[in-house]
Write a structure and sequence with these properties.
By secondary structure, the chain is mainly alpha-helical. The protein has 2 helices and no strands. Keywords: Coiled coil, Developmental protein, Nucleus.
Length: 149
Amino acid sequence: MLHELPPPHREDCVNSLAYEADARVQDPVYGCVGAISVLQQQVAHLQTQLALATSEIARLRETFAIAAAASTTNPSPPPSNSAPANGGPSLFLAPLQTPRSPPQDPDNTLSADLNRPPSIDPQNQESPPRQQPQQSPPASCETPRPASS
């Protein structure tokens, strides 16, 4: 099979075959497709976290801009030991408030880890059978053989 490939591609093919064989030993049902599925779930989770962090940064920048605009229009700071003179909320306290963040996982694991197949998740020794992933298997190194007549 390797002799049919050009020499520059042979090393990549051997590495791919070795990886696929190792993945099949670790997960006899899904092999490397199961590992790819877990990685895709982790990417989706991290993209969600990134979107939350980006929106939080935008919210904080807006809060700081409002506070800066308020401080330039009113150069005298409010008294530090009492409420504002008008009795309303102080704009100067808004940047000091604790930013909202998503709830933290107490076990320090990603929620995507819960969907790992048993062979990939070392903490989960017994788990129910997984549904088959929707991904197609990766392309193999085999070159198509011409149909014999």
